[in-house]
Every structure is written in structure tokens, then in C-alpha cells.
Write a sequence for this structure.
């Protein structure tokens, strides 16, 4: 489904295809019981979307008893705050349809990979501050996420361990402008940031593991609930992680975190 009625809101991919932001819906058979939901954002450095970090991940969360959604958000040449607006709009859409879709409106997690992890972390920490224009009744719903799942996330876009490419595509410049520093997500955590499950591999050669460590340390410093897993092997972008037995445990661990630590109901 399109997340906006306005067809002028679109994203342009590398191959020239113009696609409006969409939300793919993967509902569990819940037999009338409201379930927890996970909104998944693929990575791609804010320049494109990685196909293997979408529907396949949703299917695994369905298997664990959650409703799942995959958001195809706006990327470059669209700039901040367009991707963040898309995430928060998706949350509002799910809450507006919670009764029909049998979603617990107070148990909606956002989860992202790589730059999608930065998108999730920025929305989880700054959802109140992202500007948007109300266009319909859906926008009267709350945009607040109830948990985050951050998968080998870009957290910093400015420092020595940053993934500066993501910041450049998000803001359209290589300059270290103040807006970039404001979206180094480890600096955005406060006493209201929702719980986070974070995982990375120690050998990630694309986004250094220091990103996840920095975010977890900020969460703990603010007294927020955060579970961090660093697996010994695996390159960047492994998705489910089939070829890496240790890292592939992340899905089961993330599901347990949502159920046991965040109270997400499952079927």
C-alpha cells in the first residue's frame, strides 16, 4: 500500500525507477488476539534499498508470532527528513488500522539494517522532533515507536568510526554541517528512548562495530533498556545471516527480547 495519497511524493532509485513510498503488510493469523508488530527498514546507505533485508526478514518475524511490515522509504535524491517522515507515517498507519489488522497499538517496534538502522535509531530517539504536515485523520495517531531492533546499524555519520556515506546521501553534502551532528544517534538518547535490541559482527568491514557499542553505551548511561550482541564473524550486510551460525541467532534473540523484555504479545 502507498503511505501517502499524494503521487508527487516519490523516491528515485539508481536505475531511474520512480516509486512512491510503500508499506508491505505481512499479517499473522492471530484469531482475534492483538499481536505485537515489527516495521522493517532495509539498508542501502540512503541511496537505495537492499532487497534481502525486507520480505525475508518479515517472514521470519511472522514465524515467531509477530505481525510484520516492510517499509520502502524515500532515499536519495530525497533528503532529511523525508525517510524519517515515512517511518513515522507508517507507525501512524498501523495504529490507525490496529483494530482491523489485530495489532496491539502499544507494541509496535521499528527495525532496520545498516542505514535502515540509522533510520530506526533516529526515529526512536527523535520522533517528537521530526516535522510533518498533517494530511488526513491518520496523522492524528501517535508516531511513538515502542521498541527498536538495530541490525549492524549506522549510528554515527560524523566521527572516525562513522559511516559518512549514509550521512552524505541523507543530507546531500559531504560537508560536516550541524544537522549531521544532530543525527549522530548515540548523542540523541534520553530518558524516554524506547528499548533497543542491537547486534553487529566484530568483523563488519562496512559499518564499524563501534557504532553499535556507542549506541548501547548511551542507552545504558541514560538507564534505558538495551541488549547488545556482537558476533565474532560476518561481513557487512548479511541480513538473516544463514552462512554465519553465530550471527544467525539474532532473529530468535530479537524475538525473545520483544516478548520477554518489552511485553510484545505473539500468537
Amino acid at each position: 500500500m502507498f503511505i501517502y495519497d499524494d503521487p508527487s511524493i516519490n523516491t528515485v532509485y539508481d536505475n531511474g525507477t520512480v516509486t512512491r513510498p510503500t508499506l508491505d503488510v505481512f499479517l499473522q493469523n492471530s484469531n482475534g488476539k492483538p499481536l505485537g508488530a515489527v516495521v522493517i527498514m532495509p539498508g542501502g546507505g540512503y541511496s537505495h534499498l537492499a532487497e534481502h533485508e525486507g520480505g525475508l526478514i518479515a517472514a521470519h518475524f511472522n514465524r515467531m508470532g509477530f505481525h510484520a511490515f516492510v517499509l520502502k522509504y524515500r532515499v536519495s535524491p530525497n533528503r532529511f527528513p523525508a525517510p524519517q517522515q515515512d517511518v513515522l507515517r507508517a507507525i501512524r498507519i498501523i495504529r490507525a488500522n490496529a483494530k482491523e489488522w489485530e495489532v496491539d497499538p502499544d507494541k509496535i517496534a521499528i527495525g532496520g539494517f545498516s542505514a535502515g538502522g540509522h533510520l530506526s535509531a533516529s526515529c526512536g530517539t527523535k520522533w517528537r522532533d521530526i516535522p510533518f504536515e498533517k494530511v488526513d485523520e491518520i496523522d492524528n495517531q501517535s508516531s511513538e515507536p515502542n521498541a527498536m531492533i538495530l541490525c549492524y546499524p549506522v549510528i554515527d555519520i560524523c566521527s572516525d568510526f562513522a559511516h559518512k556515506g549514509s550521512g552524505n546521501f541523507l543530507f546531500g553534502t559531504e560537508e560536516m554541517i550541524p544537522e549531521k551532528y544532530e543525527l549522530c544517534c548515540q548523542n540523541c538518547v534520553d530518558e524516554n528512548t524506547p528499548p533497543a535490541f542491537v547486534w553487529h559482527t566484530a568483523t563488519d568491514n562496512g559499518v564499524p562495530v563501534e557504532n553499535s557499542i556507542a549506541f548501547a553505551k548511551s542507552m545504558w548511561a541514560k538507564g534505558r533498556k538495551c541488549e547488545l550482541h556482537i558476533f565474532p564473524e560476518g561481513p557487512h550486510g548479511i541480513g538473516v545471516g544463514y552462512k554465519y551460525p553465530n550471527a544467525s541467532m539474532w532473529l530468535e534473540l530479537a524475538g525473545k527480547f520483544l516478548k520477554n523484555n518489552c511485553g510484545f504479545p505473539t500468537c
